[in-house]
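Dear colleague,

Thank you for sharing your sequence with our group. We've completed the structure prediction you requested, and as agreed, I am returning the results in plain text so they can be pasted directly into your records. Please verify that the sequence below matches your submission; if there's any discrepancy, let me know and we will rerun it promptly.
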Amino acid sequence: ILTDDIKYMHAFESCYFNAFMAGLYHDWAARAVRSAGRHMWTNQAGMKYQHCCLNNMARAILRYNELAVVQNEKFVTVNLFDEFFAKLAYDGGECDLSVSGGFFENKPVEISAKFTGNSKKLRVRIPHWCENFSSSADGKIVGGYFETDAVGDIDFSVSFDMKPKICEFVGTPCDGEWHLFRWASDSAKVCT
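Please find the predicted structure tokens below.
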């Protein structure tokens, strides 16, 4: 993601919403996806009193917050679109950014950026699943991002053509040593 290659942000978003969030139980205390809800901490990682998924859940949530909006020398980039407010400080300036609206309901997302000191352009990631993207601001699409023409304060909306697709992951339960069960990239069962 630090390389500014959009494919990594696309992969993060897909993993976060499809695997990570789908794998949390309602109490946020256990992972559900792996091993059909059975969890193993001693056999998996040799941990006797704690297991890694609880630690990794907090890391994933923190990473999501860190990646929602980022900035570099030229741009403040909005990567994720659920509602949030961020205050970014950088050499010579600051940006107060808010994202609101109905992203998860396939409604327009409102983006507002207010700069003090040195201003930057705003850039919005266009998700890889988006077939039609529109913006009320003037700008251009470059490398999967929408770059606003304006530098500095801006209020605008963006719309995504979100057509959710349900993709069933078909698998066969692994009998016996289920904690050793892994999936290969071609969806073939691999037990080690």
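Summary note from our side: The CA atoms of residues 110 and 165 lie 24 Å apart.

Kind regards,
the structure core
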